[in-house]
Amino acid sequence: MMTTIARRSGVFGLSSLAGLMAAQPAFALGADPAGSGPIVGALEWIQGTLLGNVATAAAVIAVAMIGFLMLSGRMNWKFGATVILGCFILFGAATIVAGIRAAAG
What are all long-range contacts of 57-63, with beta carbons under 8 Å and residues at least 24 apart? Predict the structure, then answer.
């Protein structure tokens, strides 16, 4: 039979252990999860490809062509605006996400 002190210390130990386990994810927010190195590397490569010099040059050429076609009346204004808005979202994605994170917490 357990004494009252033993029961209390056991409950206190379990509650403090539960508190430490619940606080663990808060400490891990700054680091990448274990085993995510290849995934993070692949995503950084994709980000570098989408935001690199070649992508920037291609986007500038695309916006110039779309603008010329819109001015000459050969392209629908709605489709042209969609392409240009897509370029702004692609290159402003990091700023957009930073703004959402700042607003969320």
Answer: 59/87, 59/90, 59/91, 62/87, 63/87
Q: What is the DSSP letter of 52?
A: S
HEC string of 60-95?
Answer: HHHHHHHHHHHHCCCCCHHHHHHHHHHHHHHHCHHH
Contacts of 77-86 with CB under 8 Å at 24 or more apart are none
Phi, psi at residue 74, to the nearest 5°? -95, -10
| Sign of the CA dihedral running 80, 86, 87, 88 | positive
Three-state DSSP class for residue 4 = helix
Provide the b/e sequence for 42-81 (b: ≥16 CB within 10 Å). Answer: eeeeeeeeeeeeeeeeebeeeeeebeeebeeeebeeeebe
Q: Kindly report, residue by residue over 3-58, the tens digit of the pLDDT.
A: 545 444 444 444 444 444 444 444 445 677 777 888 989 988 888 887 888 888 98
- Any residues with CB less than 8 A from the CB of 72 and at least 6 apart, and which? none
